[in-house]
Write a structure and sequence with these properties.
Length: about 180
């Protein structure tokens, strides 16, 4: 996590997942969607009430180890200062917080070979049955990140014991 000033007001990166109807289209546009544990469970595009979002759940996957990453394309952090990351997140059918948000400046396509730093994201606890509301992550200071950066949403689950479902939407990075 970064110390120092943040709170830049100009949006220089955003993704609301309305541009494409499939996760494959995002991968073609530079996103990485991979299960590092070798399984089949990966992120997908969900839709409810005409709103697209990235979603993940290990429920009924049959995979006892799930390590799935959704990674943004490279984002140039040298063009601004005082950067902040925000996003909206919804948790459902909660049985443990198994999502983390990380940043890397040396990611080249292999999530296991990159150096990842955990960011201080607020991950809500959802209801055990059904869906909670979307909650804002809060402003996450990433002003100490320089160069070409990638933001990752990492889901570490296990079917049937850790299968919380997450929806991620409205990713925004601001700076001055």
């Amino acid at each position: 996590n970064c110390d120092g000033p943040s709170g830049g007001g100009a949006v220089f990166y955003s993704e609301n997942f309305e541009g494409f109807d499939s996760i494959e289209s995002y991968v073609s546009a530079g996103w990485t969607n991979v299960n590092a544990s070798g399984g089949n469970e990966v992120w997908e595009i969900g839709n409810f009430d005409n709103n697209n979002y990235a979603q993940i759940s290990g429920f009924s996957s049959g995979e006892d180890i799930i390590d799935t990453w959704l990674v943004t394309p490279a984002i140039d952090m040298d063009t601004t200062t005082e950067e902040e990351l925000t996003f909206n997140i919804q948790a459902a059918f909660d049985n443990g917080t198994i999502l983390s948000v990380l940043v890397s400046t040396d990611f080249t396509g292999d999530v296991t070979a990159a150096t990842w730093n955990l960011v201080d994201a607020s991950i809500p606890t959802g209801p055990e049955s059904g869906f909670g509301d979307f909650f804002p992550s809060g402003a996450i200071n990433i002003s100490c990140v320089d160069g070409m950066a990638h933001i990752a949403f990492r889901y570490q689950g296990s079917d049937p014991t850790a299968t919380t479902r997450y929806h991620i939407d409205d990713i925004v990075i601001t700076g001055n």
